[in-house]
Amino acid sequence: MRKLLLLLWLFSITWLLGGCGQVAAPSNPALTPSTVQADAQPTPSLPAPAPDTGIVVGSAIWQGSQSQAVSEIDLYLAEVSEVEEGGMALARLDPGSSPKATLDETGYFIFVDVAPGTYALVAAISPADSALVPDPETAAELTIVVVAGEVVDLGTIYVPKLY
Asked: At residue 4, what are phi and psi to the nearest 5 degrees?
């Protein structure tokens, strides 16, 4: 809980100042294209990923709901970097430059032209109303590995209530 509060506070400050912030990072093993595609839900047709970037897709419903689609929030990919081997990792989120997706009325989202790397998924309505999205299987923060030329299909994610 303390980690999430720190994340929200830092994200709020970053958003308000329009600069870059660092927040506590996900602690679970990263999802990769090969680990998530087996559980992925069918999605609308996708553009082909560029050879030097990847695509992240999925659909979102509210946590605790079986079918209520999320559509009134934005999702961000916060870049994750390890401070030192075995140490705490940090996720860098800059609302002005971090990859952003807006959900449609069914909860479907797509991030295109995402640079290869490791990311945490952040749901946000405003700086005060934001949270890391948990992994539906482990409840730890969701971590995504984007590989150039590949699509990462997250299937259905469960977004914590933000308000």
From this structure: -65, -40
**Are residues 159 and 73 in contact, defined by beta-carbon separation less than 8 angstroms?**
yes
pTM as predicted: 0.71
Parallel, antiparallel or unpaired: strands 151-159 and 54-62: parallel
Cβ atoms of residues 6 and 119 within 8 Å: no
Question: Residue 61: how many CA atoms within 13 Å on its side-chain side?
Answer: 8
Integer angstrom CA distances of residue 5 from 8, 23, 76, 132, 146: 5, 10, 18, 11, 27
- Listed in sequence order, the residues at least 6 apart from 111 whose beta carbon sits closer than 8 Å to its beta carbon are 55, 56, 57, 75, 77, 99, 100, 101
Number of domains in the chain: 1
How confident is the chain (163 residues) per 10-residue block, as mean pLDDT? 37 38 41 42 71 95 85 91 68 89 93 95 83 86 93 93 76
* Structural domain harbouring 108: 2-159
The helix (run of H) or strand (run of E) holding residue 75 is: strand 74-82
End-to-end CA gap in the chain: 17
